[in-house]
Amino acid sequence: MIYFLHAPDYKLIKIGYSANVERRISVINSTMPFIKLKCLRIIDGQPSQERKLHLKFQDLRLNNSEWFKAEGKLLNYIFDPKNTNTEFHLNDFIASIFPHGYCAKILNKH
User: What's this model's pTM, rounded to 2 decimal places?
Assistant: First the structure.
């Protein structure tokens, strides 16, 4: 799964991949408790798709990291449902570990 975490105070978004997103986000949240994080979206995806997103938004990338400037085309991508053939669902677990926001989880339609 690919996740998009927003650090609004720094105007940055982290694009990451994890097979266990809930655990990964919990670790990030606990290692950076001084940074307010909001999970914007989680989508189905593999590491290869994460790398493609990193390349797609390379011009917004900070020092070859997984952090990107929270600007127009990246924000448009995150919130545009046309970028996937999947359906939005609120993930209550992630909402519970992110008191500052929620995360929409994208699940394949079956």
Answer: 0.76
